[in-house]
Design goal:
The chain is an alpha/beta fold and 335 residues long. It contains 14 helices and 16 strands. The strands form three sheets. A seven-stranded parallel beta sheet has the order 3-2-1-4-5-6-15, with helices on both faces.
Length: 335
């Protein structure tokens, strides 16, 4: 079995990936910019990547926020002959990675982009919805903020609040402002605000019937929606909000929720709707499970096409369902 190297292993989601791999009986190589793991690896430094990574390695990239990342790791991995599985939720990063498709194919390298809640669980929800040829999917996230409040998540959130974002509407990318629109999810009794997400880019490539794709977030912390609304209406405040984010994270750990909810409302051409809901006490693990499963698959030598692997081919859905259940993630369909 080839090495599985977890980049960002000391971060929140990287440590979750390491935890899952070890629980499944594997011994990942932990890597971080800071000493203390098995490898020192800076994913934005070409020399560092070349020194740390070997041919045939499988790299799980959990180094957030992806909104500010370049393709340095992907480019060097392709040159070395190593596969990459990332937990990115960033639309911009998905676009960048896609430009490396032909080069990766030529080198026989597999790149699994957005192998996380976005977009593997999005595709899983479409399959579980029971709606064939869906025309719309609306994602919703209310994170377990007492557990998940961390700098990477805060920075990723602020990258959309009040900023120009892209969403998939009427079968094409359209621009709007993040957080300025709200949507009520009737099956949940919850309300979310519009954010940019990689689904807008990844899902039309595997489900061309989709005409509308969007993602909505509820901060799941008392008072946070009001504060984010103020930032959204005055984008000049965004840098200030970023500097004070660490205080907000401390508040979220006190006032936030212990249990998170991820849901996808899927619509059919005849107006039928089905909402697939993922919940659990450690709901944050659902973001790490797809990447862990995919990395084991690649490291074990299971067949997988070279190039940018579409999200519906990254993880076996039966294995995914079993893993979610093992880690206490409940999956429920509501009409």
């Amino acid at each position: 079995m080839n090495r599985i190297v977890v980049a960002g292993a000391r971060g929140f989601f990287g440590s979750a990936v390491v935890r899952i791999l070890r629980a499944e009986g594997y011994s990942p190589v932990t890597a971080s910019r800071r000493p203390g793991g098995d490898l020192v690896l800076d994913v934005e430094n070409r020399a560092s990547v070349r020194a740390a990574i070997r041919s045939q390695d499988v790299i799980i990239d959990a180094t957030a926020p992806f909104q500010t990342r370049t393709t340095t790791l992907v480019d060097e991995a392709i040159a070395i002959g190593a596969d990459v599985v990332d937990l990115s939720d960033s639309l911009g990063y998905a676009r960048l990675v896609w430009t490396r498709d032909n080069t990766a194919k030529d080198r026989g390298v597999r790149i699994l982009n957005a192998c996380s809640s976005v977009s593997v669980l999005s595709g899983f929800a479409i399959e579980r919805s029971g709606i064939g040829n869906p025309v719309a999917i609306h994602g919703f996230l209310a994170p377990a903020t007492r557990s998940t409040a961390n700098p990477g998540a805060a920075e990723a959130l602020l990258r959309s609040v009040g900023q120009t974002i892209d969403v998939w509407r009427a079968g094409k990318l359209q621009q709007t402002r993040g957080w300025m629109e709200a949507r009520k999810f009737l099956a949940l009794g919850r309300r979310g605000h519009l954010m940019e997400m990689a689904d807008t880019f990844t899902l039309p490539r595997v489900c061309p019937s989709l005409r509308d794709i969007d993602f909505w977030v509820n901060p799941n912390t008392r008072g946070a929606a009001i504060l984010l609304g103020i930032v959204a209406r005055s984008p000049v405040l965004s840098p200030i909000a970023g500097r004070f984010a660490r205080y907000g994270m401390a508040v979220a750990r006190i006032l936030g929720s212990d249990e998170g909810t991820l849901a996808y409302e899927v619509e059919g051409a005849a107006g039928e709707r089905s909402t697939v809901v993922f919940t659990g006490q450690e709901s944050f693990l659902m973001a790490a499970i797809p990447a862990a499963l995919a990395a084991v698959r690649l490291a074990s030598g299971d067949p997988c096409p070279a190039g940018i692997v579409p999200v519906h081919q990254q993880v076996d859905l039966q294995a995914l369902a079993a893993a979610l259940a093992r880690y206490g993630i409940r999956v429920e369909r509501r009409s």
